[in-house]
Design brief:
mainly alpha; 1 helix
Length: about 70
């Protein structure tokens, strides 16, 4: 019985970790969306895109497009 109890606890832990992972992913998406909105708002100091992040075309959105 001890192995079954341990397996049950491990399954519960895995489910709990999966929920936390999903919640963290949602929070990350929310923060990224918020930052993108702030980058477009000239009234937010320090949130303008870094000109060094631009690619050769001058398009800051294209920089790093081939990166994951």
């Amino acid at each position: 019985m001890e192995h079954e109890e341990q397996a049950d606890r491990m399954e519960e832990d895995a489910e709990r970790m999966e929920q936390h992972s999903e919640q963290l992913g949602e929070r990350i998406d929310d923060v990224e969306d918020d930052w993108e909105r702030k980058e477009q708002d000239a009234s937010v100091p320090g949130a303008r895109p870094d000109p060094h992040d631009e690619d050769e075309t001058g398009d800051p959105d294209a920089a790093g497009a081939d990166e994951p």
